[in-house]
Amino acid sequence: MTFQRARSEEQREVRRRAILRTTSAMLDEMPVAAVTLNELSRRVGLAKTAVLRYFESREAVLLDLMDDRTTTWLTELEPELAQGVHPARSAVERAEQVADVISRSLAAHRVLCDLYGAQGGVLEHNVSVEVVRRHKRASLANLAVMAGLVRQHLPEVGDQAEIFCLNLLIVGGALSAYTSPPPSLLAVYESEPALAVHHIDLRSALRLAIITSLVGMLPRP
């Protein structure tokens, strides 16, 4: 892909979307830490200095991508919850159904979990105040949407829905780091299976974390 210099705001947006799409494709092949501006610029067909005209740093690209992927995930999650949670069930049963749906859905978005895992320690560094401001506004908007979906199917959690959603995304990011062991660790597990007793399955671990949190938030009978 080769671009001429963007001269209109519409052309600039086309470039930005192309950079985000290319970064997204890279993350399907490699971990967040392996994404570099040099490789990104090569794949998108722009000089590194040109990429920096649209995004001030590698971290700025990844923050925008995380916000975009979160919005996409929540759009998918809404009908999944509508289909998987039955309003006639008890609060505890609905909490279990919410856990089933969200854990299955979020675990399928492994790249999104990886981005959340890198957010606090990596992605929110090496970016300007304005980039962080834009990211936090997008994050809060997505968090409000997610909390609204949870309250729709489990109104008993009330005002605790947002803190539940925030904690869930943080937990998803933390768990993702342990669910794709490096080759050396896999070799150890293969040679000594007893050491793999606590090998983490992302969906199962997410489901347990969600149920534990939600049931703890339900009003006492």
Automatic annotation (TrEMBL):
Stored Gene3D superfamilies: Tetracycline Repressor, domain 2
Keywords, ordered alphabetically: DNA-binding
One matching Pfam family is: TetR_C_34
Its lineage opens with: Bacteria, Bacillati, Actinomycetota, Actinomycetes, Micromonosporales
Q: Which residues bind DNA?
A: 36-55
**Does the keyword DNA-binding feature in the UniProt annotation?**
yes
Q: Where is the HTH tetR-type domain?
A: 13-73
Q: What is this protein called?
A: TetR/AcrR family transcriptional regulator
Which PROSITE patterns does the entry mention? HTH_TETR_2
Gene source species: Paractinoplanes hotanensis
Matching entries from InterPro entries are given as: Homeodomain-like_sf, HTH_TetR, TetR_C_34
